[in-house]
Amino acid sequence: MPPTYERLTELRDVLARAGELSVRTMIFDVEPLVAWWDSGPEALDRGIAAIVGELRAVPAARVVVFATNSARRPSAVPSVPGLRVMYLASAGKPLRTAPYRGLPGPGAVIGDQVPTDGLLARRLGYTFLHWNPPLTGVPLGPRLMHLLGRVAKPLLFRQDKPAGRPRR
Hints:
This protein is α/β, with parallel strands linked by helices. 31% of the residues lie in helices and 17% in strands. The protein has a 6-stranded parallel β-sheet, with helices on both faces.
């Protein structure tokens, strides 16, 4: 099955869709979904805990990976019975795929950038759940990546798949 693209604007919708897809592996981009780019370690810890706390919406999930191309790290990675929680700093998305080898499928990459998160999803054969709410105060680099993503999306993904509709 070719990788698919779905655009969502709310975390609850991302988790609901991941549940509908029965994904076993979820890879979350850290900035800005888990914690804002220039936030401190406390915000990162709170963001990770909040997402892990909401994963009951995805009963098939066995692995959740928080991946960032930055060097930032949480103070601790939560331990959840029945769920492997991983954190990858300096992940090298989308070039490095070795850390994701052997993770159970099907999977989804959840992130805000098509050129990094979307391409990683495509390389892994995962669904790309493009978290794309209207944001203000986005740093210049991510804004430019968003513009690049508008060009890259039609090259990486054939068409948008409407969330929540049955596949034919």
